[in-house]
Amino acid sequence: MKGTKTTIAALAALLMAGAAQAEPVKVGMITTLSGGGAGLGIDARDGFMLAVKQANNPDLTVVIEDDQQKPDIAVQLADKMIQSEKVDVLTGIIWSNLAMAVVPSAVAQDKFYLSVNAAPSQLAGKGCNKNYFSVSYQNDNLHEAAGGYATSAGYEKTFVMAPNYPAGKDSINGFKRFYLGDVSGEVYTKLGQTDYAAEIAQIRASGADSVFFFLPGGMGIAFMKQYAQSGVDIPLIGPAFSLDQGILGAIGDAAIGIKNTANWSKDIDNDTNKAFVETFQAEYGRLPSIYASYGFDTANLLLSAMGKADVKDADAFRDALRAADFNSVRGKFIFGPNQHPIQDIYVREVVKEGDVLTNKIIGTALIDHADAYASECAM
Amino acid sequence: MFSLFLEQLLNGLQSGVMLFLMASGLTLVFGVMGLINLAHGSLYMVGAFACAAVAAWTGSFWLGLVASLMAAALAGALVEMLVIRRLYKRDHLDQVLATFALILIFSEGTRWIFGSFPLFLNVPEALSGTVTIPGGSQYPIFRLAIIVAGLIVAAGLFALIGKTRLGTRIRAGEADREMIAALGINIDRLYTVVFALGAALAGLAGAFVGTTQSVQVGMGEPVLILAFVVIVIGGIGSIKGALIGSLLVGFTDTMGRFLLPIGFEAFFDPASATAIGSALASMLIYIVMALVLFLRPSGLFGTEA
C-alpha cells in the first residue's frame, strides 16, 4: 500500500516535471493602435494574433499595448513590460523613431526583440545585436528595389521625397544606392504632414520624369489625393508602404497603375500564403496588408523557436530563431549574418479586382537581396 | 520661378484660410466663455467623417458638406449642454482634463462606428480639374474654391459678430458676463449657440480638408495644435487676431517649406541643405510664435491681461 502511494507520488512528480518542461513564453507587443498610423499597427497585430490563434499553443501569452506613435510612450510601455509584466520577447513597433528609442535598451536587458516592421540602418550595421531580429526587412530594402526598378524602367530624372525621420533617411539612401539616373529634387517632409501642396508645386517645377515617394499610412493617402487633384501626371514609384492595402481604399482609383516594390504580395504563389490570405479575410473581413504579413511571419518564427528550445536558455532559443525553421508567406525565408532577412523583392502594380483596389506582382526587382549594412555588423 | 512662387502663395493662403475656420471657433469659445476646449479637433474630425459617410452613402459631396455642418453643430451643442456647461466656473486645468477626455471619447466612438481604416472622400466632379494661373502653372480648382469659401465664411463671421444682435450679445458676453445675464439675456442659450457655431466652423473645415487628406481617427489633433498656435499669436479671444494669425501661420509654414531648403543651398551641399532646411521649416511657426510672444506677450490683437 505504501509502495503504491510512493509510486503515484513519483508519477505525479514526473508528470509535473513534464508539464514544466515547456517554459511559457510571454510576448510584449508595443504597436500603434490609435492616431494616424493606427491602420499599420492594427494590421501587424491582427496578422500576429492570427498565427497565434492558429497555433493554439497554451504556452504563449501576448500582452498588447498602444504606443500612440509616440517614442516616449513606447519607452514607458517597454519599461513596464520588461519590469512588471516580465515579458521574454518584445515585438510590434511600426515606426523607426520608436524602434530606436526602445530596441537598444530592451536587447541590452537580454530581451529578444523581433521586428514586425521598423528596421533602421542603425540597428543593422554597427548597432546590430544578437537579441535583435528583423523579420520584415532592413529599412533600405524596398527603396533599393524601387531605385533598381526606376533605373530599369529608363527614368533619368527622379524627384525623391520622404518624411524627416530615420526610416525616411534610410529610404532616400536606399533608393539612391540602386538608382543610376539623376535626382532632380530631394525633399524631406515633416512626419505626419497632411498637406503636400508646397511639395507638389516643387515637383511640377522640377522637370522630373518620375517621382519616388515614401509616405506610409495617412501621409500617403493625403499626398496621393492631392497629387491626383493637382493635375501633375509625372509617373509615381513607391515602396509598398505608400500604396498598401490598408490605404488604397481611401486613395481611390487615383492609385491604379502605380508601381511599388514589396517583399510580399497577396498573389505570391505558395500554400502558406494562400492559406494566410484566405484565413485573414475570413477572420477580419478585409484583405491582409504587407504589415499583416510581417506580423504573421513574426509569430510563426517565434512559435517555431518555441518548439525547439526553451526561452530561458537564451543561447539555444537564439539559435532556434536564427534557423528560421518556419513556413513563411514569402516562400523561402533565411536570415543574413546581421539577423535581417535575405529575400526577393518584387515590383507590384495597383489594380482593381472587382471593386476592390489591390496590388499584383508584375516582376522581380532584386533576387536574394541582402542589406548594405550586414558587413558592418560584428556578431 | 514666378509661377511657382505664386502657386506657393496660393497654397499658403489656402492653408491659412482653413486654419482660420478652426481657430475662429476656438478663440470665440475662449473669448466668450473663458473655456479651453481641447476637443475642438474632435469636432473637426466629426465634420470630416460625416461628410465622407454621407458622400459615400448618397454619392453627393454637397449633401456631405451639409451633413458635416449639421453633425458638427449638433455634436457641439450636445457636448456643451452635457459636459462643457459644468466647466465654466472651474479652473482651466479641470477644463483641459475634461475636454481631453472628450477627445478620447470622440476618437474611440468614431473608431467604434467607422473602424480604424481611413475613409474615402474625394472632391466633387464639378470642382475637380485645374485652372491655369498667371505664370502658366496649373492650380487645382478645388483649392481655389476652398480659398473662396473660407473667405466668404470669414466675411460672414465678421458681419455676424459686428453687425447683428447675436454678435452684440457675443461681444457683450466677452466683456462682462454677469452684466448681460442681469440684462435678461438667456446666457445658457447664448453659450450653446456660440459653441455650436464654433463647432460647425470646425466641422466645415474638416469636410473641406478631408477631401484633400486622409479621413481618419485622430486627424483633428495636429490641426488643433496649429489652431492654438494661431490664437496665441493672434491674441486669445480676438477674431481679427485669429484671421491674421491663421494667414501668418499658413504663409510661414508653406513658404518656409518651399524657400528654406533653396536658401540653404547657397551655403551647403544640396543634401544637407534639404535636411537642415526641412528641419528648420518644421520649427518655423513655433519660432514665429516665440518671437510674437516676446514682442507682444498677449498676442498681436490680444487685450492686456
From TrEMBL, chain A:
Belongs to the leucine-binding protein family. It comes from Thalassospira xianhensis MCCC 1A02616. Keywords: Amino-acid transport, Signal, Transport. Residues 1-22 form the signal peptide. Residues 24-354 form the Leucine-binding protein domain. Pfam families: Peripla_BP_6. The keyword Ribosomal protein does not apply. This is ABC transporter substrate-binding protein. GO terms for biological process: amino acid transport.
UniProtKB/TrEMBL annotation, chain B:
The chain crosses the membrane at residues 12-36, 43-59, 65-84, 96-121, 141-161, 190-211, 223-251, 272-295. It is found in: Cell membrane. The keyword Transmembrane helix applies. It is a multi-pass membrane protein. InterPro entries: ABC_transp_permease (IPR001851), BCAA_transport_permease (IPR052157). One of its GO terms (cellular component) is plasma membrane. Keywords: Amino-acid transport, Cell membrane, Membrane, Transmembrane, Transmembrane helix, Transport. One of its GO terms (biological process) is amino acid transport. Belongs to the binding-protein-dependent transport system permease family. LivHM subfamily. PANTHER family: ABC TRANSPORTER ATP-BINDING PROTEIN, BRANCHED-CHAIN AMINO ACID TRANSPORT SYSTEM PERMEASE PROTEIN LIVH. This is ABC transporter permease. It comes from Thalassospira xianhensis MCCC 1A02616.
